[in-house]
Amino acid sequence: MESVEFHTARALLEWQIELGADECISDTPVDRYALPDRLAKPSKPDPKPHLTRGPVKMAERDPVAEAQAAANSADSLDALRTAMENFELCDLKRGARNMVFSDGIAGAPVMIIGEAPGRDEDRIGKPFVGASGALLDKMFGAIGMGRANADAPIYITNTLPWRPPHNRDPKPEEIAMMKPFLLRHIALANPKVVVIMGNWACQALLAKRGITRLRGQWVEAVGKPALPMCHPAYLLRNPEAKRDAWADLLSLKAAVDK
Q1: By C-alpha distance, which of 78, 123, 83, 134 is closest to 100?
Q2: pLDDT tens for each residue of 2-53
Q3: In this structure, CATH architecture of domain 63-257
Q4: Are 115 and 158 in contact, with CB atoms under 8 Å apart?
Q5: pLDDT of residue 52
Q6: pLDDT tens profile 73-95
Q7: Are 182 and 162 in contact (CB under 8 A)?
Q8: CB 92 within 8 A of CB 163
Q9: Domain assignments of the chain as residue spans, ordered by start
Q10: Would the CA dihedral through 208, 214, 219, 223 be positive or negative?
């Protein structure tokens, strides 16, 4: 290698310093193109990483199975309420103020299944309050029944115990998750007949929707006679449907009296 004259070398060094190359990295140059191939090639992936190293992935929890187990363990309505209060896998619980369990008299011959709590239900912690609740009380009062009527009581709950955000429709996975609790609730309350109020209650218990077509037609749900009816909220928006609701109420009373 030819030597470089002192002044030339100094001029070159000063020029490199002006360019910013002012730090010596190594005493000897490194030929990057001459690196071994084994360092340039990526290593082969481990065909069985879960057997050789790294953390073991936890099995995903099945919310429906856990809800089923919790519901089956309840041998009373109080135990069922506690099981639902302790159930942590439904995201609706995180955004709700209160769990809405039931109202009325347990053991009543008529059990009403609503849809999901609204703002008033979430605030108070009871199903069917506010304008819808007032109409429901008038409807059943007209046939001599009521949630506080010891002689002809009714018992009320909802398909979902927690309010969906902004009163949105329930999601299918939310209904499926909470259905074991609903079925256990019906079994423990043991009514003579079940009133299925609204589309989402029909979806949960009958796997059908279209309440204006289903209403007034007696069916069987969870082994009991069941009558789909329009939800009071629907009747408030569509007053002309109250005539059909009255016919349904008379049919219900006849079935209970029989």
Answers
A1: 123
A2: 666 776 777 777 767 766 666 666 666 666 566 555 545 555 555 554 544 5
A3: 3-Layer(aba) Sandwich (3.40)
A4: yes
A5: 46
A6: 999 999 999 999 999 999 999 99
A7: no
A8: yes
A9: 63-257
A10: positive
pTM above 0.90, yes or no: no
122: its two tokens: 């979430």
The b/e string for 217-251 (b: 16+ C-beta within 10 A; e otherwise) is: eebebeebebbbbbbbbbbeeeeebeebbeebbee
> Which residue blocks in 20-62 are alpha helix, DSSP H?
37-40, 49-52
SS3 assignment, position 164: coil
Distance of CA 165 to the CA centre of its chain: 11
Residues in the chain: 258
User: What are the pLDDT digits (tens) for 154-198?
Assistant: 999 999 999 999 999 999 999 999 999 999 999 999 999 999 999
Distance (Å, rounded) from C-alpha 20 to C-alpha 110? 88
